[in-house]
Predict the structure.
Amino acid sequence: MSQSAAIYIWGSLLTCGLALIIAAPFSLAAAIFITEISPKLGARLIQPAVEIFVGIPSVVYGWVGLTVLVPFIRDTFRAPMGGYSVLAAAIVLSVMIFPTITTVAADSIRSVPVMYREAVYGLGSTRWKTIYRVVIPAAAPGIITGIVLGLSRAFGEALAVAMVIGKTRAFPASLLYPTNNLTAAIAADMGNSSDGGEQNLDLWSMALLLFLISMLFIVVIHTVSERKEGKVE
């Protein structure tokens, strides 16, 4: 099981990392549009619509990925395992964490004092330069918090990923190949392992690793929040 555990750990790191790479730029762009480009439309329509997606059950994301995304990857990229792949899991996860990162980032950007913008505009700066040089750096702690929260949800997701990742005990040769991750493996195998057996102990060890990762995310969030409060003071 030690090699299988390595496969699960690598699968979690690969899918969550790729999901973050996909979701973070779109989330930041959406947050900027909601708060800086079109704040009235963003506050009344776009942000509430984004927040609705936070409450959608993960099985719905998995079902859409299974019926739409997996066939698309199979037909477009000629995936060797019928579309079940790391890429499919990463895209599903990116859609799932997009609302979390966007909402937290938008709230953080909105909390930047108006006087910061007025001071920079008074110096003749353009809107985009103000956003890039002043607003984003000032809101960076909150944006990082949103990214960490999104990454935490990605690491803890099991059902949606299990439906599209393929659940094979092998290192993926590329993003178009299937693999497995920690949460999906624990959820699938825990009920079939004998209490006190080697497989059962390995699964509990993987669960402990997930718990430690979650604690690490909490520590990072608290550290970033404390630095933000220190700068404000």
About this structure: The radius of gyration is 20 Å. The CA atoms of residues 85 and 165 lie 5 Å apart. The chain has nine helices and no strands.
